[in-house]
Design goal:
Layout: H1 3-19, E1 30-33, E2 45-52, E3 57-63, E4 68-73, E5 79-86, E6 88-92, E7 95-99, E8 104-107, E9 113-116, E10 121-127, E11 136-137
Amino acid sequence: MKQTEIDQARAESLAMLADAGITLGPSEELEITDFGKGEYATLGLGLVIRLNEPEYASKWLTVAPGQVCPNHYHKIIKETFLIIKGEVRMVLNGVDRLMTPGDKCTFGPGTWHRFTSEKGAVIEEITTRQVATDNYFEDTSIERYVKVEKA
């Protein structure tokens, strides 16, 4: 992604968080990912790792309208998703579920999952400790972290 695209996506994600009543703390940073595909409008996420302790971690995720987080699983991480704002279509091991604010679901390591939102959503994700290398995507060409293109 170009830096200007990252800046625009970051501004949109911050607005989504603010609309959900969420303000970032001074040590929290919003990360944008397009999963290395250069298609952020349809394949991507905004995320804030709020804390990453040895026993647990917490993130806020923003899903822009029409965006998808691609199918993947973790070998170590157990996750709980809590819907803060918007509707999320969550697919766990091929089973489709529509989630709305107040809904939550927990799933363990080895669970294939993907999610999308038609109109945009904010999710809180609580997990066991985050492990940067514990992402296994169905599409093996996906890269978890964004690469910034030079202007």
